[in-house]
C-alpha cells in the first residue's frame, strides 16, 4: 500500500478513473451488441437505427480516452460494413 500523500491521492484517482472507464466501455459494448443483434435478426431498418445510436457512443468513448481513437474508428467501420452488407444487391 502507498505511504506518501501523493501516492495515496494517485491510488484514489486511479480507482475513480478505472471505474469511469469501465462504465464507458460497458455502455459502448452494449451499443455494439445491440447493432450485432439487429444484424443477426435480419432487420435492416433496426440495424441502421441501432448503428446511428452506437456510432456517437463509440466516438465519445474514444474522446474520453477509454479506448484509442483508431480502435473506435475500426469498430465503427466494421459495424457500418456489416450493416451495409445486409442490403441485397439490386
Overview of this protein structure:
- By secondary structure, the chain is an all-alpha fold.
- 81% of the residues lie in helices and 0% in strands.
- It is built from three helices and no strands.
- Helix 1 runs antiparallel to helix 2 and helix 2 runs antiparallel to helix 3.
Oligomer: single chain
Low-confidence stretches: none
Q: Could you say what the CATH topology is called?
A: Methane Monooxygenase Hydroxylase, Chain G, domain 1
Assign the structural class, choosing from mainly alpha, mainly beta, alpha/beta, alpha+beta, or little secondary structure: mainly alpha
Q: Give the second-level CATH assignment, the architecture.
A: Up-down Bundle
In sequence order, what are the helices and strands, one letter per element?
HHH
Give the overall average pLDDT.
Answer: 94
Number of helices: 3
Task: Provide a quick synopsis of the model.
By secondary structure, this protein is mainly α.
Topology record:
Blueprint: H1 5-41, H2 44-63, H3 69-84
Helix pairs in contact: 1-2, 2-3
